[in-house]
Specification:
This is Phosphate-selective porin O and P. InterPro entries: Porin_dom_sf. With 405 residues, the protein is mainly β. The protein has one domain: Porin (Beta Barrel), CATH 2.40.160.10. It is 5% helix and 53% strand. The chain has two helices and 18 strands. The strands form two sheets. Strands 1-2-3-4-5-6-7-8-9-12-13-14-15-16-17-18 form a 16-stranded antiparallel barrel.
C-alpha cells in the first residue's frame, strides 16, 4: 500500500510553520523561560567542580518484577535496565557540548544516545551537529527514568517510535517567549531508517529493528536523509502541546546506478501534550502514527499503518516533610496504553486485522526529592494476534528505583 499523500502535506505544513518568524512573540530574558520537552536534554542536574570546564551527571534505574502470562510464571527477577552518564561543557560563550552514554542491562549494550555541539547565534537560530536524538513525540527526548512514576517505558514509545532513537546529522532549533507563552521548533537532517523495519525476525512491521544497524553512525543506508521536524507551544498555566514528523525512504532502491526497487517511504507523525492545570494532577499523553510503504511481496501480517499511544495521570496525595526529606511526595498514578501494529482489514474477508496490545498500569510512588523516585506498579497487558483470537493476558508487580546522581 502507498503512503497517504496527506502525510506529505502535513510534513510540508510543519516545515512552513518552522520557517516562519512568529511575529506575535517577543524575546524575553532567560530568567523567564518556560521549559519544554525539547529542553529535557539540558534540563538535568550536573555536578561541576569550581571553574572546571566539564560538568558530569547521570541516572540509574533498578527494578524487581514478578509476572504471570496465561497462568505461567518465571518467578521473581531483578535487573538494572540502564545506567546513563552525562558529560557537558560550555566551550566558550554560546558554544556548548553535551553527551549522553547509556549502559543497558549491565553493559550488555553500550549506546551513545546524544553527543552534539550547539552554536547559539540567536534564541531563534541555533545550530546543532553530531549524534542527535530525533525529536519525534515527547518521550524520545524526555525519557529519563527519574522523571516517570512507571517502571517500564510506554509501549508505543518503544515499539512504534524506537525509544531514544538517535542518528548523526545537523539541524536548527530555537524558541521565543511572550509573557505566559513559549514557542519553539527543531529541524534536523540525519541518517535514517533501513529495510530491517520489514526484513526482521519479529514477523511484522517493526521500526525498532533499525536500531540494530550500528553502521547508521558511519553512513546512511541509502543516501536519502531522514528529515525530522517538531514544533511545540506552551502556556505557563495551561500546558504544552507538540507536533512532530519524520520521514525518509527506508529501502535501498539503487546501487551502483542499478535500480533495485522503487523508493519506499516511511513517515511517522506524533502529537504530545502535558498539563498541570488541575491542582496536584499532572496529565501527560502522546499518540503516534506510522505509515510504511510495504512491498507487495510481503504478506498482510506486515502492516502499512501503525498507531498507538499512552496517557498518564499522576496525582500528588501528600507533599510535606517525611523521614527528614523536605518537600517529599507520595503520588498515585495511572497509565493507559494502546498499540495497533497493523491498522487495516484482510483483503480476502474484509475482517479487521488485529495484532494489538492494551495495557493498564496503576502505580504508587514515593519521591524524597524531585530527582529520585521509588515506585510500585501493577501491570496488566492484553495482547491480541492478527486473527483476533482471545487475548493473551500478562499481569504482574514491579518495584523500582530511579535517581539522578
Amino acid at each position: 500500500m502507498k503512503t497517504s499523500s496527506s502525510i506529505y502535506k502535513i510534513g510540508g505544513y510543519l516545515l512552513v510553520l518552522i520557517c516562519l518568524n512568529h511575529v506575535a512573540f517577543a524575546q524575553k530574558s532567560d530568567s523567564f523561560q518556560l521549559l519544554l520537552n525539547m529542553d529535557a536534554v539540558y534540563n538535568r542536574p550536573f555536578l561541576q567542580a569550581g571553574s572546571f570546564p566539564v560538568a558530569i551527571g547521570g541516572y540509574i534505574e533498578a527494578q524487581g518484577e514478578y509476572f504471570v502470562s496465561d497462568g505461567i510464571t518465571e518467578g521473581v527477577s531483578f535487573k538494572i535496565p540502564r545506567m546513563t552518564l552525562f558529560v557537558s561543557s560550555t566551550i566558550t560563550e554560546r558554544i556548548k557540548f553535551l553527551s549522553e552514554i547509556e549502559f543497558e542491562e549491565g553493559t550488555k549494550e553500550i549506546n551513545i544516545e546524544f553527543a552534539a555541539l550547539d552554536f547559539e547565534f540567536h534564541p531563534l537560530l541555533n545550530f546543532r551537529g553530531g549524534i542527535i536524538m530525533n525529536p519525534i513525540g515527547a518521550f524520545n527526548q524526555n525519557h529519563d527514568g527519574p522523571r516517570w512514576e512507571f517502571v517500564d517505558r510506554p509501549i508505543s514509545a518503544t515499539t512504534i517510535i524506537p525509544a531514544t532513537f538517535s542518528n548523526v546529522g545537523f539541524g536548527l532549533h530555537g524558541k521565543t517567549y511572550q509573557k505566559q507563552w513559549v514557542w519553539a521548533y527543531e529541524a534536523y537532517v540525519t541518517n535514517g531508517f533501513n529495510d530491517r523495519i520489514v526484513a526482521n525476525s519479529e514477523g511484522r512491521t517493526w521500526l525498532p529493528a533499525t536500531k540494530e544497524n550500528v553502521d547508521r553512525f558511519e553512513e546512511n543506508f541509502n543516501a536519502v536523509p531522514l528529515i525530522t521536524l517538531k514544533t511545540a507551544i506552551r502556556h505557563r498555566k495551561i500546558g504544552e502541546i507538540g507536533l512532530s514528523w519524520m520521514g525518509d525512504v527506508y529501502n535501498k532502491y539503487e546501487e551502483d546506478g542499478l535500480m533495485l526497487d522503487q523508493k519506499r517511504r516511511l513517515d511517522v507523525l506524533a502529537i504530545d501534550f502535558n498539563t498541570s492545570a488541575i491542582k496536584n494532577l499532572d496529565i501527560t499523553g502522546e499518540w503516534v502514527w506510522a505509515f510504511v510503504d510495504v512491498p507487495a511481496t510481503y504478506s498482510q501480517q506486515f502492516g502499512s499503518q501503525q498507531q498507538g499511544g499512552f496517557i498518564d495521570f499522576v496525582y500528588t496525595v501528600l507533599k510535606r516533610e517525611m523521614f527528614g526529606w523536605e518537600n517529599a511526595r507520595i503520588n498515585l498514578a495511572l497509565r493507559l496504553e494502546h498499540v495497533d501494529y497493523n491498522v487495516g482489514s484482510f483483503e480476502e474477508t474484509g475482517g479487521n486485522i488485529h495484532d494489538d496490545v492494551q495495557a493498564i498500569v496503576p502505580a504508587l510512588s514515593f519521591r524524597p526529592s524531585s530527582q529520585t523516585v521509588i515506585r510500585a506498579n501493577y501491570r496488566h497487558i492484553w495482547e491480541t494476534d492478527l486473527l483476533g483470537n482471545p487475548a493473551a493476558k500478562t499481569a504482574g508487580f514491579q518495584i523500582g528505583i530511579s535517581s539522578y546522581f
